[in-house]
Amino acid sequence: MSNPSILILAGDGIGPEVMGEVKKIITWYGDKRGLQFDVSEDLVGGSAYDVHGTPLHDDTMAKAQEADAVLLGAVGGPKYDVLDFSVKPERGLLRLRKEMDLYSNLRPAQCFDALADFSSLKKDVVAGLDIMIVRELTSGIYFGEPRGIITEGNERVGINTQRYTESEIARVARSAFELAKRRGNKVCSMEKANVMESGILWREVVQKIHDEEYPEVELSHMYADAGAMQLCRWPKQFDVIVTDNLFGDLLSDAAAMLTGSLGMLPSASLGAPMANGRPKALYEPVHGSAPDIAGQNKANPIACILSFAMALRYSFDKGDEATRLEQAVEKVLADGVRTADLLAGEGVTPVSTTEMGDKIVEAL
Amino acid sequence: MSNPSILILAGDGIGPEVMGEVKKIITWYGDKRGLQFDVSEDLVGGSAYDVHGTPLHDDTMAKAQEADAVLLGAVGGPKYDVLDFSVKPERGLLRLRKEMDLYSNLRPAQCFDALADFSSLKKDVVAGLDIMIVRELTSGIYFGEPRGIITEGNERVGINTQRYTESEIARVARSAFELAKRRGNKVCSMEKANVMESGILWREVVQKIHDEEYPEVELSHMYADAGAMQLCRWPKQFDVIVTDNLFGDLLSDAAAMLTGSLGMLPSASLGAPMANGRPKALYEPVHGSAPDIAGQNKANPIACILSFAMALRYSFDKGDEATRLEQAVEKVLADGVRTADLLAGEGVTPVSTTEMGDKIVEAL
Ligand SMILES: CC(C)[C@H](C(=O)O)[C@@H](O)C(=O)O
Ligand SMILES: CC(C)[C@H](C(=O)O)[C@@H](O)C(=O)O
To answer: Which annotated residues bind Mg(2+) (chains A, B) (predicted)?
Structure first.
């Protein structure tokens, strides 16, 4: 039997640098734990545009469909701001999400003990925080038609459409309930059912899936604006949050920032099971391409490394190995090893991107 | 010449209680400062539904159109959760906003020195915070057509439409630039131009209004998810934020919560000038109807009182009198007088809703 395959799309900005450290980790797992992967690489985002004139070449799309897991670095940069909407770096990422049908985006917001001081929130508000935001990723206003800029009378009108079908809501709700069962057994669903009909349907379907399939999980509903407030006030009240594509974009970023450790946070985007039983999957750090520090060996590779840990857990059914990697990261942090984004406090050892990768390999 | 008119719509939950204290303030201004208002009252939200079967009677709508300023308490409550979407308490508020064409919603997020400890954020992150969120309030996904829940094939689909015309964007942008000129001279505009065409048009029009009419104001653009992050990280980087109806809903609530003083925050919703030169205007606290504490003389009336201060400033051109009222509130807080929502710390005097109103009148 051939090895499971990983497609690496390092992307733009700091993407290639942080991915370099992930490759060290992959190699370590091959050498030391007998976990061999067939790794291939390709382009996405601005770097794909530079070569192919499109942020995602059809061949790359086809490879992603075949891969057991896709690891993505980051896309975008000021150089590409002038490009037309249809070929912007982000379109490459959105095409991957849509065509692989990665409907369930898992965004853990976790506060690492060693880093609690980096939060703008008071220590007792964030210490030990561990919530999971499940964001619908392939529908809603990101993809709904009609969309565009049209002319009506003598002015232009910008249009986007939020559309959710019952089955789109049901499948992401199931994925949230499944996760909750393995965590704190609590789901909070967020929408704006008080102003949007799509929110009414969302609430109704989430409730129905709960009542019929997951009655043992505690379910609550919250308006998304109140949710944004409550995340800022007392985030520990949440376990799993499930919400739509657009609310999930804002709420998961706010939650990520609360932890103070943006350079630390991974994400997984999962779709339906493939023939081999593995879900279609793409893993990427929550942070962006950080063009200001790209190429300087300064970026924090941990979010990308922890994204690989999520791949071990969700794609390759190696929860133990994922935990091993997460613990290695925690150990290195507890030892005071820090990249430039986290340089403060006493007893701290500043390291570069590559040194951080090496330290984590050592800790493994 | 007759006195300027105020229509009071106290609404549901704690609305009537907090509005009771505003009435004391209005009386004080009549008696002591010669500012006479013709005050009338009517129903909105659940309390209107209970009497008329609609959350806003046409007669009330007509009165609101005539009034020089509308003061609203709060709408909603669990009792009305079962109502059909079309007659929910919120629809009354949304109808007022839409038919009065109150396109510019001003939401100050201000941290009161005496209350900085109530924030979940570290003191240095919020102390002295003073930002103004300008939220577009009459368009976008709140009102766009088509909308509703339809059946397609054998399943239901929830649909809402985001629509922004150039002139809708231009007018709210102007209102943000005008405010910035009287404040820190900085505007940050937030959208998702990287995924939504309506965001592309938004960014373009805001930039154009800036370049043609307000080149002296500093303008920046930020994606709304990054904006949510930056609000949580270092809110003091902002002066005026301008954004659409839905993003504004989440971002202004998050910003409000950051200050830790939700019971303190007022808002103004302004439209075009009427024949007498005053803008159409509605003033309301940011907090909701708080059904859990309604009727207990426990609610904090300050947000509603400060909403009246905004009315003095924006509808009645009495900036000095507004400042007087704001200073009276600050003095009372500095003296340690607190309603139940803010009871912590030393040297604090707990008071009821009505006592708080009395203290503020005294301080005036
Ligand atoms: C890059 C962008 C298209 C993307 C999004 O809006 O989904 C990003 O913000 C994210 O959250 O992954
Ligand atoms: C009550 C509700 C309709 C309203 C909104 O969503 O606009 C509220 O949240 C607000 O922000 O004023």
So the answer is: 225, 249, 253
- The residue range of the domain holding B152 is 130-258
Instruction: Read off the tokens for B34.
Output: 């010669």
Q: Per residue in A242-292, pLDDT tens?
A: 999 999 999 999 999 888 877 899 999 999 999 999 999 999 999 999 999
User: Of B258, B292, B322, which residue sits at a domain end?
Assistant: B258
- Counted domains in chain A: 1
Q: What is the distance in A from the centroid of ligand 2 to the CA of B249?
A: 7
- Hey, what are A259's tokens? 């932890």
Answer yes or no: B42 catalytic: no
Q: Which of B137, B246, B289 to mutate to test the interface with A (most CBs of A within 10 A)?
A: B246
What is the SS3 assignment for A176-233?
HHHHHHCCCCEEEEEECCCCCHHHHHHHHHHHHHHHHHCCCCEEEEEEHHHHHHHHHH
pLDDT of residue A313: 96
**DSSP code, position A121:** B
Nearest in space to A146 (alpha carbons), one of B150, B159, B245? B159
For A94, which residue in chain B has the nearest alpha carbon?
B195
Query: Is the beta carbon of A90 within 6 A of some atom in ligand 1?
Result: yes
Question: Which residues of A are known to be catalytic?
Answer: 142, 192, 225, 249, 253
Please report residues of A whose CB lies closer than 8 A to that of B225: 249-250, 253
Tell whether the model's pLDDT for residue A1 goes beyond 70.
no
Q: Ligand 2 center to residue B253 CA distance, Å?
A: 10
Atom of ligand 1 nearest to the CA of B226: 9
Q: CA dihedral defined by A244, A313, A90, A152, rounded to 10 degrees? A: -20
The tokens of A154 are what?
């003598």
Q: Which atom of ligand 2 is nearest to the CA of B76?
A: 1
| Tokens, residue A73 | 């670095």
Measured in Å, residue B204 CA sits from the centre of ligand 1 at: 20
B130 carries an active-site annotation: no
Final residue belonging to a domain, choices B258, B287, B306: B258
Residue with tokens 């949007």: A196
pLDDT in tens, B154-181: 999 999 999 999 999 999 999 999 999 9
Rounded Cα distance between A233 and A110, Å, is 16
Q: What is the largest CA-CA distance in chain A?
A: 68
Residue B120 lies in a domain: no
Distance CA B301, CA B316 (A): 21
On whether the pTM is more than 0.90, the answer is yes
pLDDT in tens, B73-89: 999 999 998 899 899 99
Q: How far is CA A178 from CA A93, A134, A187, A214, B226, in A?
A: 26, 11, 10, 8, 29
Instruction: Please count the residues of chain A.
Output: 364
Four-residue CA torsion sign, B299, B300, B303, B305: positive
Measured from the Cβ of residue B2, the count of other Cβ atoms closer than 10 Å reads 6
Closest residue in B to A193 (Cα–Cα): B85
Q: How many residues does chain B have?
A: 364
Minimal Cα–Cα distance from B170 to chain A, Å? 12
Question: Closest ligand 1 atom, CA of A105?
Answer: 12
Is B49 annotated in the active site? no
Question: CB–CB of B253 and A229 under 8 A?
Answer: yes
| Of B253, B335, B341, B358, catalytic | B253
Note whether B253 and B265 are same-domain residues. no
